[in-house]
Automatic annotation (TrEMBL):
Biological process, per Gene Ontology: tyrosine biosynthetic process
Domain spans labelled Prephenate/arogenate dehydrogenase: 76-355, 396-679
Species for this entry: Ziziphus jujuba var. spinosa
Chain intervals for the UniProt region annotation (Disordered): 17-36
Pfam families: F420_oxidored (PF03807), PDH_N (PF02153), TYRAAT1_C (PF26213)
Protein name (record): Prephenate/arogenate dehydrogenase domain-containing protein
Gene3D superfamilies: NAD(P)-binding Rossmann-like Domain (3.40.50.720)
Length: 695
């Protein structure tokens, strides 16, 4: 049977102006609910509608107050002790994050503090009575003990968190444990960066810490985490590590970094218009370490067990490198002295051997001739057609003379750009050449008969003259372009002008990068060149430009500069760079889990220079007029730094000796002084004696 349900509409009461909304009667009049069927009708009434409870109205800024309370609960009151360069550096970030920062220092930094939004206290008692939650020790290594002992700890809350930021960790850990009451919390930290190395932010930089002693109460654990979160929020790499492990990994690497930085600072290195990556690294290292006080460096020296041993190792490495150079120089002089006699002996032996072996030599001549050219799979040379949109005329046939490490490095890019590359070297590199898509020749005559448009000399500085004189240049086209890539420029320029016929074009270049520094591409790396002699024909000018375009296409910074100007800027800086790289290589530096930016710089420097041959370094020494003077200056700088350290050490030891003697003298004088009487006056006899002394 169908059942219909009807609900009468509700009619709210009209508003009464005399009543507030909350005082209105909220019980509507009862309305009937009818249930109708064919047989009977049921009439029911609603139960009265009643509001049982209603939230009280909240203040309009309730939510903002809740947010502010949550925000302030994550903020700390931090007192910085030692408001010098580093303390101010940390304060900027602490204030920016919303923490309350107080500061105390022996020097008056109130003006700087005011600018930073920091409350400065000249009296540590006043600061401690503010009850900071965290005491952040930013004093030097040398003054930390004195600062701690002078701190009125009794005015602090007994559960205050004490944090240090020193570069060594075992020393402050022991100091804090020995000098502070057991109810203070302790964290030993090392932000492994400073104002210079972190001038662009802290992101990705190491922050090492050890929770030496943190109470078990939730509030103390939370406070510790809030403090560490200051650095985590800035993107630091947070590394929890024991103080002993930190010192094992970091202390020695920091000492080496600061030592090298200070030695180079003594040399007064200057930037040039054509800095190499390695030289840029040295300049950055000087900048990063020069801003730190000598107290920091001396502290590293004093509180690192192996500091003296590391100085000695550095000294020995430098001496070993000088011996290598002098030994090589001695050998070259001997060769010049006795070379003529030796050459005559060799010629005589060759003549006698030729007389006995004429028939055998003739028989093998034809077969050996066939082996001079190493055949390669012809499909490899299709790489020259990769760049379809360029005209074939824009591609060059380039012969690389000297197909060692650097020659192969250049060949990869030249082939990739679609140029035809030939190669010749004293060593057999035919397998490497085949993989790179390069035609390899074991005979220079065969290569020259291929008429390359460009002959690219990639030999060492020392062998360039010999190679140039041995080339059968008469087999080349008379307008061939000769190019060198040596690290010095006056030497090859003069060699070319003296040994090549005047109809050859000459371009002296220096790609200021190598396989290591250019492994991620050549973009923005300097390429220096001097058009020493280029024919006026349009084809020869165009060929020169096409060759230079190889490097321009890769994004190199193209710098046209005379050879003499290049050597004035670059030769000296390269020699210093390679010298430091080789000294550090002899030291055997190793990476650590927590490298500083400065130490990373040293490791990269070793990587960039270690791949280069000693011939390159010796060539920089031989053909740099100022090399000997630079070695002497480097030697003097290192000696000067050692003298500063040892003089400071001597002064520190004398101070200890004589302070003890002075204290003993003071004690003796105190014991000899007459005692005061009960009323606080001197006995008559003693007073009379003192008056006589004053007279």
């Amino acid at each position: 049977m169908p059942l219909s349900v009807s609900l009468s509409p509700l009619h709210p009461l009209p508003p009464n102006p005399s009543l507030s909304p909350l005082s209105l009667p909220l019980t509507p009049p009862p309305q009937p609910l009818s249930l109708t069927s064919n047989t009977q009708t049921f009439s029911l009434r609603h139960r009265p509608l009643k509001i049982q409870s209603l939230d009280a109205a909240q203040p309009y800024d309730y939510e903002s107050k809740i947010a502010a309370d949550f925000h302030s609960s994550n903020k700390l009151k931090i007192a910085i002790l030692g408001f010098g360069n580093y303390g101010q550096f940390l304060a900027r970030t602490l204030v920016r994050q919303g923490h309350t920062v107080l500061a105390h220092s022996r020097s008056d930094h109130s003006h700087v503090a005011r600018q930073l939004g920091v409350s400065f206290f000249a009296d540590p008692n006043d600061l401690c009575e503010e009850h900071p939650e965290v005491i952040l020790l930013c004093s030097s290594i040398l003054s930390t003990e004195l600062v701690l002992k002078s701190l009125p700890l009794q005015r602090l809350k007994r559960n205050t968190l004490i944090v240090d930021v020193l570069s060594v960790k075992e020393f402050p850990k022991n100091l804090l444990l020995n000098l502070l009451p057991n109810d203070f919390d302790l964290i030993c930290t090392h932000p492994m960066f400073g104002p210079q190395s972190a001038r662009n932010g802290w992101n990705g930089l190491y922050f090492v810490y050890e929770k030496v002693r943190v109470g078990t109460e939730e509030s103390r654990i939370s406070r510790c985490e809030k403090f560490l979160n200051i650095f985590a929020k800035e993107g630091c790499k947070m590394v929890e590590m024991s103080c002993s492990d930190h010192d094992k990994y970091a202390a020695e690497s920091q000492f080496i970094t600061h030592t090298i930085g200070r030695v180079l600072n003594e040399l007064k290195l200057e930037s040039t218009p054509i800095n190499t990556k390695g030289y840029e690294a040295l300049l950055d290292l000087v900048e990063n370490t020069a801003g730190d006080s000598f107290d920091l460096y001396y502290g590293l020296f004093m509180y690192i067990n192996k500091a003296l041993e590391m100085l000695e190792r550095l000294d020995l490495a430098f001496e070993a490198l000088k011996k290598q150079l002098v030994g090589r120089l001695h050998g070259a002089v001997r060769k010049q002295l006795f070379g003529n006699a030796e050459g005559a002996r060799i010629k005589l032996e060759s003549y006698l051997a030729a007389q006995h072996g004429t028939n055998g030599a003739a028989a093998s001549a034809s077969s050996s001739k066939g082996m001079r050219f190493q055949n390669v799979d012809p499909s490899i040379y299709k790489r020259a057609q990769i760049v379809k949109h360029l005209d074939d005329d824009s591609k060059l046939k380039i012969a690389i003379i000297g197909f060692g490490n650097f020659g192969q490095f250049l060949a990869k890019t030249i082939v990739r750009q679609g140029h035809t590359v030939l190669a010749y070297s004293r060593t057999d590199y035919s397998d490497v050449a085949q993989k790179l898509g390069v035609q390899y020749f074991s005979d220079a005559d065969d290569l020259c008969e291929e008429h390359p448009e460009v002959v690219l000399l990639c030999t060492s500085i020392l062998s360039t003259e010999k190679v140039l004189r041995s080339l059968p240049v008469q087999r080349l086209k008379r307008n061939t372009l000769f190019v060198d890539v040596l690290s010095v420029k006056e030497v090859p320029r003069n060699l070319f002008l003296q040994n090549l016929p005047p109809y050859f074009d000459i371009l002296c270049t220096h790609p200021m990068f190598g396989p290591e520094s250019g492994k991620n591409g050549w973009n923005s790396l300097p390429f220096v060149y001097d058009k020493v002699r280029i024919g006026s024909d349009e084809s020869r000018v165009l060929r020169c430009d096409r060759f230079l375009d190889i490097f321009a296409q890769e994004g190199c910074e193209m710098v046209e500069m005379s050879c003499s100007e290049h050597d004035r800027h670059a030769a000296g800086s390269q020699f210093i760079t390679h010298t430091m790289g080789r000294v550090l290589e002899i030291l055997g530096l190793e990476s650590t889990p927590i490298n500083t930016k400065g130490y990373e710089t040293l490791l990269k420097l070793v990587d960039n220079t270690a791949g280069d041959s000693f011939e390159l370094y010796y060539g920089l020494f031989m053909y740099n007029v100022n090399a000997m003077e630079q070695l002497k200056r480097l030697d003097r700088a290192f000696e000067s730094l050692k003298q500063q350290l040892f003089a400071r050490l001597h002064g520190f030891h004398r101070k200890q000796l004589f302070e003890n003697a002075d204290e003993s003298q003071d004690l003796q004088e105190i014991l000899l002084l007459p005692k005061l009487s009960e009323n606080g006056t001197l006995p008559a006899s003693s007073s009379h004696a003192l008056n006589n002394q004053n007279d």
